[in-house]
Amino acid sequence: MKAVGFYRSDLPLSNPESMMDLELEKPVPTGKDLLVRVKAISVNPADVKTRTSGKSDPNNPRILGWDAAGIVEQVGPDCILFKPGDEVYYAGDLERPGCNSEFHLIDERIVGRKPRTLNYAQAAAMPLTSLTAWEALFDRLGVNQDELENKNRTILIIGAAGGVGSVATQFSKLAGLTVLGTASREESVRWAKDHGADYIINHREALGPQLKAYGFDFVDYIFCLNDTVLHWESMAEVIRPQGKICSVVPAGKPVNLDSFFVKSVSFHWELMFTRAKFQTDDRLEQHHLLNTVADLIDVGKIKPTMTQRLEPINAANLRLAHEKLLAGDMIGKLVLERF
C-alpha cells in the first residue's frame, strides 16, 4: 500500500527525505480494529510537533496523520460497531502509526460514522478539532449544554479562527454562550464571525481593555488555543471569580499558578489523545461524540471547516501542508485527498 513517512525527524521540510513516498504491507485487522481505506486526511499541529519530536527509527518509517475519512475495508473479529462498506471518520491514536497511508488500522471505539452531508475531504477536517472542542467545553470546563442555563454566560476563545476555534465557537453558540473570539487579521475576523463569534478582540493586544469596551469586566470561561504562557496573566485578569480556563497548548516552562488563586479559578488541560493513549475505560465516548457531531452537521447546526484542499496525498503535498501550518496563519483546516 502507499504511505507517506520518514526515517529521520531531524531534517528540514526542504529535504525530500523529511517525508517520503513509501510502499508498505497492507495491515490485517485483529481484535476491535477496523481496516479503513483512507480517502482523505487533514493536517494538524500534532503532525508538525510529532515530526520533529526526535522519535525516529532508521529501520522503520514513522507514519504521521491524525484526521481521516474513509471506508471500512475489513473488521477485526471483536468489532460490533461497524461493518465493511461503512463510511467513517476519526482522529486516531498517537501511540500507533498514523493515517497517512492508503489503509489504516484503528480501534473502532474511537471512530464515528462519517457525516452523510459531507464529502470525504470535508469530513476529514472535522474529527480532531471536534473532539478537542467538545471535550474541552463540556468535559473539562463543564459547560452546561442547556441554552437557558447559559443565557448570560460568556466564553473567551483565544484563537477563534483556527481549526479547533472554528468548531468550539459553534459548539459554544449551540450551548447558548456569548462568544468573544480572538482574531488579528481581516480574513480571520470574518471567518470567526461567520462561525458564530458575537464579539471579536485582537489577541495581539491587551485583552482586558478590549473586553471592557464591549461592556464585559470578566468572562465565565476561557478556552486558550494560542500560546498559553503568553496569555497567562491576561487570562488571570479577565476570568470571572470562580471561573474556569482550559488550554490545549502546553506551557513548556514554569507558570505562576498563584495568578489564579485569589479568584479560586480552576485550570484544565485538554488533549483528545488521552483516552486512546491510556486506554481509558471511557474511550468509547469518542465514538459517541463523533456520531453526535455527525448528526449536528447533517441537520445543519455545525458548519464544516475545510478551507484548503490538496490532491493527491503524497510526500510533496504533505511537506507543503506542514509548511502552511508552520506559517502560523491558518484559518480553518487543510485537507489532502486521494492517494
UniProtKB/TrEMBL annotation:
Record key words, sorted: Metal-binding, NADP, Oxidoreductase, Zinc
Any Pfam family the entry gives: ADH_N
Domain Enoyl reductase (ER) positions: 14-336
UniProt superkingdom: Bacteria
First and last residue of the signal peptide: none
Family per similarity comment: Belongs to the zinc-containing alcohol dehydrogenase family. Quinone oxidoreductase subfamily.
Name listed for the protein in its UniProt record: Zinc-type alcohol dehydrogenase-like protein
